[in-house]
Write a structure and sequence with these properties.
A hairpin with a 5-residue loop joins strand 2 and strand 3. The protein folds into two domains: about 70 residues, no CATH class; about 220 residues, Bacterial polysaccharide co-polymerase-like, CATH 3.30.1890. With about 290 residues, it is of the alpha+beta class. It is elongated and about 105 Å long. It has eleven helices and eight strands.
Length: about 290
């Protein structure tokens, strides 16, 4: 028996007659999507914009490049780094070593890795499966590696190509912690870079002082003295500068508005999926009847 052919106009007509099914399907799926959207906690993002202090903006950087010839004349081989402050800041901020310090700090770690949402008083509610806030102890502390991955997902490090300015952002369920942590992260990273440069300068000074005592050539002694001056100035800047590796262009603030989720977009997605699903269901219904 030949299969009955349905004209497109008749097919559309039958679909329009099933508007109740379409309405119910779309409504149910939209409600599911919207319920999911409201089940998600609000996420807040705090940002700070900085300008890295590069060698070109630092008088010491100019002296170092100008005295490269003197170092060669003196027979002194000092390690030179081509790493910019921008790259160094990013590498330090994203380093596992720095994250591990926060992870091992019980005054910060619970809020960093065990936060679930905030209450009406903007107090953090912790995941009881991870941290027991009533007894201030870990129920089951997550693995360092997994926590580190989560940290990187919440962290944003954006560089403006033209200006070279850096915007660092951190997302969290608590606006206050987001603000606190982005500043603490930058402060810790700067301190690490400062201490590293101080140690490097100290090692160079020990080497240079040893070299100057081993030569009686006045020209070489002058060259080494110039290099010593550079390292002393480097030490001075590292000790007196509040922000050693950067200057703040735009300070961070406690975010007042949520960053995500966009529940309107979730609802729109639900309506779209609902419409597509209803069309498929109606088409299947018509096909089976025919």
């Amino acid at each position: 028996m030949a299969k009955k052919f349905i004209k497109p106009s008749d097919y559309l007509g039958k679909m329009f007659k099933s508007w109740k099914l379409a309405l119910i399907t779309t409504s149910v799926i939209s409600v599911i999507f919207l319920s999911y959207g409201f089940s998600l906690p609000n996420i807040y993002k705090s940002s700070v914009k900085i300008s890295p202090v590069e060698g070109s903006n630092n008088p010491i950087g100019g002296l170092q490049s100008g005295l490269a010839g003197f170092a060669s004349l003196a027979g002194v081989s000092l390690p030179a780094s081509n790493t910019s402050k921008q790259d160094l800041l990013e590498a330090t901020i994203k380093s596992k070593q720095l994250f591990k310090e926060f992870f091992n700090d019980d005054s910060i770690a619970p809020s960093l890795v065990a936060s679930k949402k905030i209450n009406s008083k903007k107090e953090i509610i912790f995941d009881k499966n991870i941290y027991d806030s009533e007894n201030n102890k870990w129920t089951k502390k997550p693995l360092l590696t997994l926590s580190y991955r989560s940290f990187l997902n919440k962290l944003q490090f954006n560089v403006e190509r033209q200006s070279g300015l850096i915007e660092i952002s951190f997302k969290h369920v608590s606006p206050e912690f987001s603000y606190f942590f982005i500043n603490k992260l930058l402060e810790k990273a700067d301190e690490k870079i400062r201490l590293n440069d101080l140690m490097e300068a100290e090692n160079k000074l020990l080497f240079l002082n040893n070299e100057i005592n081993q030569t009686d050539k006045i020209e070489i002694q002058k060259s080494i003295n110039s290099l010593i001056k550079i390292e002393l100035e480097k030490q001075m800047l590292a000790k007196i500068s509040k922000n050693y590796s950067y200057t703040i262009v735009d300070v961070s603030m406690v975010p007042e508005l949520k960053y995500s989720p966009s529940r309107l977009l979730i609802l729109i997605a639900g309506v779209f999926v609902g419409l597509i699903s209803s069309v498929i269901l109606i088409a299947l219904k018509i096909s089976f009847r025919e």
